[in-house]
Amino acid sequence: RAHKWHGENQTVMLFNLPQPMGLVAAHPARQPAGQNHCLRSPCTHICLLSAVGPRYYSCACPSGWTLADDQFTCTRVDDPFLVVVRDSIIYGIPLNPEDKSNDAMVPVAGLHNGYDVDFDDSEQIIYWVEHPGEIHRVKSDGTNRTEFAPAAILGSPVGLALDWITENLYYTNPATQSIEVLRLRGEVQYRKTLITNNGSPTGAGSPVGIAVDPARGKLYWTDQGTESGIPAKMASADMDGMNPVNLFTNNLDHIEFLTVDIKENKLYWAVTSTGKIERGDPDGSNRITIVTGLSHPWGVAVYQNYLYFTDRDFEVIERVDKST
């Protein structure tokens, strides 16, 4: 300690304290009484004291919400945004690259090796995978955070895909060489294995990414293959696991995640070994390269005219016109 005005009379309070960080003096005198102008405020979410009268408070909103004209009520921002998962956090960023903010939603912190993420718009719930481990979920306002499906039950899920029509959650499980589905609603989360390594080239080898098109009844997945007959591939099946088909198999070593453009009926996927983002039709035709020269392309997403993708080595999120 030292004199607070001139820094003299320095005294060591405690020796042998490894890596001391912050500290605070605890005493009622440090927190004198005052009038709480927020006590009867009409703020719907957050009330902040102010030195400006006559109210001496102002209302504020959490990330993803905006203050209405009445200056009291918070309303949800309906602008589209990207949900980004990193090792330790999930947050939202605007689709406009000129806007460098990352507060389009309430951030979800404290992840352990976050891997993939999906979003239930009707219920405003975010689901994510911590690999190797569990599937978690949280409301978009940051409430009701739970471990939805523990690792002891699921194994090691990697990719997620929400069927928003039937409210089922599909996931890939490379540790068990399978693709599985989990019911979201109800007291019991029933699950079923849909596709396995059955010795056929159309089976699941090392599945990674997964996407669904519920209106057409189709699921798609990327697979890094095995050394025993299952090729690295982009594959499809009906959403009940029937009729699996290998759509694309050439030059797909270390294929990563994918997305489906439902409106245009197109598939996009990332390939680390070639540093490319590719596109193809769900019938296995019209395969073309969209982006080249990447180091470690990973996640992909589509919205309207743009394709968004991540590069883990370059540590960037980029977008391109998907028609190029």
Characteristic key phrases:
Neuraminidase, 2 domains, Laminin, four-stranded antiparallel beta sheet, 324 residues, mainly beta
Question: How does this model look, in words?
Answer:
The chain is mostly beta strands. The protein has 2 domains: 39-78, Ribbon (Laminin); 80-321, 6 Propeller (Neuraminidase), CATH 2.120.10. It has 1 helix and 26 strands. It has one helix spanning 151-154, and strands at 46-49, 57-60, 65-67, 74-76, 81-85, 89-94, 108-109, 114-120, 125-130, 135-139, 146-149, 160-163, 168-173, 178-183, 191-196, 207-213, 218-223, 233-238, 245-248, 255-261, 266-271, 276-280, 288-291, 297-303, 306-311, 316-321. Strands 8-9-10-11 form a 4-stranded antiparallel β-sheet. A 4-stranded antiparallel β-sheet has the order 12-13-14-15, with no helix packed on it. The mean pLDDT is 93.
